[in-house]
Amino acid sequence: MASLHIVYSTSTGHTEYVVDTLIAALRVSAPTLTIEKQRAEAAQTADLLRGDALLLACGTWNTGGTEGQLHPRMYALLKDRAKECDLQKKPCAVIALGDERYYYTARAMEHLMQFVTQHGGQVAESLVIVNEPYGQEEKVTKWAAKLLAKIPTLSQ
Question: Which of 35, 56, 88, 89 is 20 to 30 Å from the Cα of 114, by its Cα?
Answer without folding.
Answer: 35
